[in-house]
Amino acid sequence: MRVLIDQDKCCGAGSCVLSAPEVFDQREEDGIVLLLDAEPPAALHEAVHEAAAICPAAAITVEQSERV
Amino acid sequence: MTTAERIEREQETGPGAGPTPVAVPAARATGCPFDPAPALERAHREEPMTRATLWDGSSCWLVTRHQDVREVLGDPRFSADATRPGFPFLTAGARQFASGNPSFIRQDDPEHARLRRMLTADFMVKKVEAMRPEVQRIADDLLDRMTEGRHAADLVAEFALPLPSLVICLLLGVPYGDHEFFQKHSSVLLSLRSTVEEVDLAQKELQDYLCGLAESKRREPDDGIVSRLVARGELDDAAIASMGRLLLVAGHETTANMTALSTLTLLRNPDQLARLRAEPSLIKGAVEELLRYLTIVHNGLPRIADEDVTIGGHTIRAGEGVLCVLNVANRDEEVFPGGAALDVGRDARRHVAFGFGVHQCLGQPLARVELQIALETLLRRLPGLRLDIPFEDVPFRHDMGIYGVHALPVAW
């Protein structure tokens, strides 16, 4: 899994941080999303998919790795 | 638009549009005060995208399916700018409210994003999580006072309302001593019964109050949001007052009503209440489920199409209004099987109770922390909590833009 974020789209709602705090954080000065781990381990994949699904601004994209 | 033109328009939109538009706001059924209005649920079952008629005889689209609601609210081709001709309003008062000093909630990007980003740091998850001890202290103080020498009280007046009120005042730098003043005006702005004149007056009173506050922070700065907006020097006092008013009004009515209505819902679902009491660790998920189940922004979020957009198989034409019915979408069986029932163990995170898209509630991390602490503390400290009047006598807020209860007499 590869995670991509678009900081220009982010509206700072913070729902990604609640779903997967190991992968997402927010910038201190303006609350915009920060990516902590672009290739999170399998145990976090479900949480990352959830974070992408509930992101209100569609700022998170998940690319599936070709290796299974 | 004349009636003939409307009929012609409806014919153009195809048979799916249906011959009888739903009148909104639609009334809830008596006896089922937690459920969406039957007319809206029926519309969802029969045709998830249909036409609605509004108070002034105009019509708009009614969007009830979870996926369609997310598509509309997430699509920048739908504008939140209430000054555009054809924007759907629920009442004449709501139209008046939107016309004066709009805050960023009624603006589109890039201006919306510029203004909203001045506040995102204040509501980010880490910042709000750090407020837990303070919110807990406020909750405990309120319950100490409410229970001292007594065994009955109005939960709204003594706990559910003052808790978020104290917190938002603290954050903004607004003196809590003025709470009766701004709670009164805030209620007028959100009432479906307010006249245009009443809305005008409440707007002006709040705007003047917050302009005065901004001026006083210029002389005596503190670390509240209003003071920091003044210090940035990018906004004039009127713009700061609009932003402050949005936060003050939104911070009050929403969490207060979610707290009281959630408590009542749990009392009416004793199996769910027992489960939550037995497993307090369920509280975070339970709050998401209560947000989904109750969806207190219950009349629909308005938008207007900037260009022709196809959603759910229907083409919404440029200039047509849309109401996204969040409470029906949050019970969409495709996303929440058995969604008509409360289940504190459900994974309800995909709910749209905070809206969706770039306008999704800025204060949601704060609302979550407040609700988790308020409910956990209430259930832990008052094991014998019960409703103190017949359920039929509970004054539900059918007349308000934010649903809930006007009062909740409880005993313990």
UniProtKB/TrEMBL annotation, chain A:
Function: Ferredoxins are iron-sulfur proteins that transfer electrons in a wide variety of metabolic reactions.
Key words, A-Z: 3Fe-4S, Electron transport, Iron, Iron-sulfur, Metal-binding, Transport
Domain 4Fe-4S ferredoxin-type: 1-29
GO molecular function: 3 iron, 4 sulfur cluster binding; electron transfer activity; iron ion binding
InterPro entries: 3Fe4S_ferredoxin (IPR001080), 4Fe4S_Fe-S-bd (IPR017896), Fe-S_cluster_ET (IPR051269)
Protein name: Ferredoxin
Any single Pfam family the record assigns to this protein: Fer4_13
Cofactor(s) named in the record: [3Fe-4S] cluster
UniProtKB/TrEMBL annotation, chain B:
Region of interest: Disordered: 1-24
Keywords: Heme, Iron, Metal-binding, Monooxygenase, Oxidoreductase
Keyword Cytoplasm: no
PROSITE patterns in alphabetical order: CYTOCHROME_P450
Pfam family, one: p450
Composition bias type Basic and acidic residues, residue spans: 1-12
PANTHER family reported in the protein's UniProt record: CYTOCHROME P450 YJIB-RELATED (PTHR46696:SF1), P450, PUTATIVE (EUROFUNG)-RELATED (PTHR46696)
UniProt similarity note: Belongs to the cytochrome P450 family.
Protein name: Cytochrome P450
Organism: Streptomyces nigrescens
